[in-house]
Amino acid sequence: MTINIKNVLQNLGLTETNLGVSTGVTWFDTEGKINTSSSPVDGNVIARVKTATLEDYEKVVTKAQEAFKVWRMTPAPIRGEVVRQIGNALREHKDDLGALVSYEMGKIFQEGLGEVQEMIDICDFAVGQSRLINGVALQSERPLHRLSEQYHPLGIVGIVTSYNFPVAVWAWNSALAAIAGDVVIWKPSSKTPLTAIATQKIIQNVLKENNVPEGVFNLVVGRSSVMGDNFLGDKRIPLISVTGSTAVGRRAGKIVGDRLGRALLELGGNNAVIITPEADIQMAVMSTVFGTVGTAGQRCTSTRRVIIHEAVFDQVKNAFVGAYEKLADKIGSPLDEKFLVGPLIDQHAVALFEEAVAKVQQEGGKILFGGQKLEGHGFESGNYVMPCIAEAENHFEIVQEETFAPIVYLIKYSGDVQNAIDIQNDVPQGLSSAIFTLNMREAETFISQTGSDCGIANVNLGTSGAEIGGAFGGEKDTGGGRESGSDAWKVYMRRQTNTINYGAELPLAQGIKFDI
Amino acid sequence: MITRNTTIEDLVEDYPKSVKYLADKGIRCIKCGEPIWGTLEEACLEKGFTQDAIDNAVNDLNTLHDKGSDHTNPDKLLNIKTIKKSK
């Protein structure tokens, strides 16, 4: 299959220079800096984007405030119907948007399609949820009183997304926020503004056909000087959702916390797979390799560490190296379906990859495979690397850090599975984890209260590739937020407890007497 | 012109050579593939720079930029080793 990027851009309504601020159907001709989006695939300029000024930001927030007053009064199932149609619009544009995700971000086309599918999936989920925004009936301690809880729309939700999932994370947040009755302001990554603009263009017909007020779905492409601390600190925005590094999340958490706002933080991971002597080794290796090199190691859930029992260490190590040798010929343009590993996002990422390769060796680790920058035909952008396998120890400084690139550390453990779990948990981050074992005791220990301390703990599948049905997020330096499925919708709403006295008496709680 | 108040994001986007310079001084501008938020001054203070050291960094970065070195081959700049692969 050959993908013609010019056709893709045309089909998505993108031009040489694009507007980067929209409140739905309306786009604003802004006077902020003009950003250039270049493809990591071939280094070519894709298109330019006019970014927002602070005045533009103010206009958008004002519009969002107005829209919220209308949208919160729209019945949730009607809001869900709009989201259903957004899902269908995404279905219609899946190939084009998937291709643009691939070209602008660098993930392989199959993963680009998968990303759009995630958007569709969360829309479907949100449609169902729109009829299930349920409260709770509780038992009052007082006679002729009814105690209950209900959920109300929260207000404006600020969404900060990262380049590695340039559109799916917006969908996770905005589909749920929309059915909850909230309005959203999206700050996409400066590295991937075109996928964001394309998404906004895809949904705008749905907004128009359904008379959705301007200001419900807002997009603001802007640098952090315009969409930075002021955005985080804006009291008009009760919830800020940030997907990014622990450094950015810590800053966001502090600023949002200072104003007692709500922050949903999805930050870095240092995800490990444990392979015990009782694992199906072949399955473990095949599954884990996708986790290590998928999206060129640029997923929050990419597998960074593989903790292997000493009894099977050499067997697993050799199988890993063998699998990577096969992959060596499958690195190239992500738009060409014969390749399985695309480029890193830019040359800074390549430099950090090479730094990690050097550092693990300085600390006493051993490179078992790869670790070089690739050059030659097809690699002209300078962003392609040979994925790296290194033998290392968990306490190494570089192993404790998250390197956003395809480098995986093989770590040996001995004795009981609890030793492996202790090693796994001994990092600052706590996003995703997995164990490969056919032993029920090991598996259950891993997911027990003494097991993995991560937000995601899988058995016999890897750390990446979560479905939208479960809540997604992690603990410790990962930030503690949960988004996507399960009951994550609740974070987009404010909970209200109601006590109704339908009797003629005024009994106080706890039996307190207060007779005047 | 680079000042203390220039954001790290602007440095990364507009003065990419700053990334290597600051990395050598212990400031990592890029995390998880994205620029960290905040200004040059904030990043320097977080790493324990004195006021003089911050001024020096600002001067160095402007000199670096004035030389037009941001437009040189970034591979050379980053001292990246490469392997050739023919396809």
Descriptive report:
The complex is a heterodimer of chains A (516) and B (87). By secondary structure, chain A is of the alpha/beta class. Chain A contains 15 helices and 25 strands. Chain A has helices at 5-11, 54-71, 76-92, 94-105, 109-129, 168-180, 193-209, 229-232, 246-258, 281-293, 313-327, 347-362, 397-400, 417-425, 440-446; strands at residues 17-19, 21-22, 27-28, 34-38, 45-50, 136-138, 145-153, 156-160, 183-187, 217-220, 239-243, 262-266, 271-275, 303-309, 366-369, 373-375, 388-391, 407-413, 429-430, 432-436, 456-459, 471-472, 475-476, 483-484, 493-501. Chain A has a seven-stranded mixed β-sheet with strand order 3-2-10-9-8-11-12, with helices on both faces. A seven-stranded mixed β-sheet of chain A has the order 15-17-18-14-13-20-21, sandwiched between helices. In chain A, β8, α6 and β9 form a beta-alpha-beta unit. Chain A is globular, with a radius of gyration of 24 Å. The model of chain A has no long low-confidence stretch (mean pLDDT 97). Chain B starts with 7 loop residues before the first helix and ends with a strand. Chain B has helices spanning 8-14, 17-24, 40-46, 51-66, 74-78; strands spanning 30-31, 34-35, 82-84. Chain B has five helices and three strands, in the order ααββαααβ. In chain B, α2 (17-24) runs antiparallel to α4 and α3 packs across α4 (51-66). Chain B is globular and about 30 Å long. In chain B, β1 (30-31) and β2 (34-35) form a beta hairpin. Chain B has one domain (8-83). In chain B, strands 1-2 form a two-stranded antiparallel sheet. The interface between A and B is large, with 47 and 31 residues.
